[in-house]
Amino acid sequence: xxxxxxxxxYSREHIWVRIDGDMAxxxxxxxxxxxxxxxxxxxxxxxxxxxxxxETFGSIESTKAVIDLVSPVSGTIVTxxxxxxxxxxxxxxxxxxxxxxxVVEIDDMGQLDDLLDSTGYHDFIMQEEETD
Length: 132
Description:
By secondary structure, this protein is of the alpha+beta class. It has four helices and nine strands, in the order E-E-E-H-E-E-E-E-E-H-H-E-H. The longest helix has 14 residues. The radius of gyration is 14 Å and the shape is globular.
């Protein structure tokens, strides 16, 4: 059974969210990176660009697929993880910590209510795997 960090929230699009005040750090979940395989490239949004909840803010290309990154919150992109440009493997090796993708200044904290906690995300994954 996979364990998901309890200090994070999760979207059904396999994005994790770490909250610090009105800032949200976003990354892909360990489950997502496992399914993608080796990640080859990431397309980041521009800093100071605005992202809408449930809209694409970038993409990831792996050996298996290219996926859109769907934002679980609306807000302004404050920073992107430049370390990924030097070592893209950190997304695969440590997706919940050093492999984070972007930081968003959240417009509506109420949007967080729709995200899953670690138990809810685990249950969601189990249901998703049953339908695969």
